[in-house]
Fold DeoR family transcriptional regulator.
Amino acid sequence: MSSRKTGRIDALADALARRGVLHLREAAALLGVSEMTVRRDVGAHPERFTYLGGHIVSADDVAGGYELDREADSHAGAKLAACRHALRLIAPDDTIFIDCGSTLVHLAQQIPADLPLTAICYSLNVANCLAAKPNVRMILLGGIYHPASATFSSGEWLEPLGRLGINKAFISAGGVDVQRGASCSHFHEVPIKQKAIAGAIESHLVVDVSKFGLVKPAFFAKLSDFRSILTEEGARAAPVDA
Amino acid sequence: MSSRKTGRIDALADALARRGVLHLREAAALLGVSEMTVRRDVGAHPERFTYLGGHIVSADDVAGGYELDREADSHAGAKLAACRHALRLIAPDDTIFIDCGSTLVHLAQQIPADLPLTAICYSLNVANCLAAKPNVRMILLGGIYHPASATFSSGEWLEPLGRLGINKAFISAGGVDVQRGASCSHFHEVPIKQKAIAGAIESHLVVDVSKFGLVKPAFFAKLSDFRSILTEEGARAAPVDA
DNA sequence: CGAAAAATGTTAGAATAATCACATTCCGGG
DNA sequence: CCCGGAATGTGATTATTCTAACATTTTTCG
């Protein structure tokens, strides 16, 4: 049905990857077809393109945030606020570790474009944010991809993490319990988080207050492992002892 | 001058982080101001927001992304055609290696959603494509990110690659020379490509014909290392000897 | 080849958004 | 309390985009 059509769609996607936005007119000229046809093409592929008032944008650009979970946006405001506290802790030329989770995606997004950093991560979403920052030197811990959390389990690749000099580690959690500490949903994340915390000069727990009192299957740290706990309500010193 | 104003800007950013896109009308209602004011606010902060035909999106969403090379789409059609040949070689439950470069991004995109595979890659762009395929088990070789090519240089993480059982490796090149073999622009890619080729049962070079006769700084393989060379003009057996 | 179907192009009128000039409100300092 | 300037709102005007119906071309297949 559509060898010509498929080619167009693909050319569009490529152009978008390069330019970010494409006006209907430009797209039509680029593809050598009428604007009407471009409109129809774009409309036929809502999963790849988003069409906004005459402009074409790659669909995942506007994906409504990264929504790892349905709850990803339920506390977006709180998460954003918590990240602002984290941002204030970052100094130029720091080497930071950014954990996974929607909370820290916000942190990665908000890193100023002109702040020089080395950032270590193991989440595809975080990596995509960091890749867009020209002054961030990114190190991604690879391995087997886990779709549920958009992270990689490092396995054999984990060991070199211990040799990286981490200045500040920003860690998130699915649950925070004063007695038992911080927990998350995915077991493969545990060794990575622990290694990052162990190797960092200072670690900070970044969560929104809705996580307090929750418990997830995998505990990975005591609250006393953190120098501070950053929430939308402000930064507080972590309890000195579990 | 603007404590009220700053608050609005922040509220807008929050809403955007949550919703992805915001229509002028919604934004005005949300902030409790007139559409004109929202228009002015957004226009005053081009570094945070992009305004497209009545819709507001976060600026870094539309950041203009990857651009591996200026030539990325100049041969999009050819690259796509070359990938179709590659696709035909892939069987269910294969373990494949996908090299970097815009050509192979097309390959990753075109993997059918219902084809179960294990795929190894080291390019952020390819990884993003593979992450969208529910039946692909992805392994990403991490390391230091190289923005110019959107790839990772594996360094210490490279060694485990040798222990992965690769069924078919699909390799791209920036230049193909009958005498001297295949070359690429970035030196850090050389050991990865070589290790993949060495570890794979069969390797295939996927390029468009515009690459023939070109020479890039880093040679990484002889043409006889490949079982076949796949171009938009079809698959041909690789020369038996350099 | 020839008919049917799909894809593309064209047009005009309706809907929507952008711009501008000016009216109004809000706020801090005499 | 009043004044001046900044911020905001309003409405008319102009420009742009959207929609849908229909004309034309291209492809498919008997």
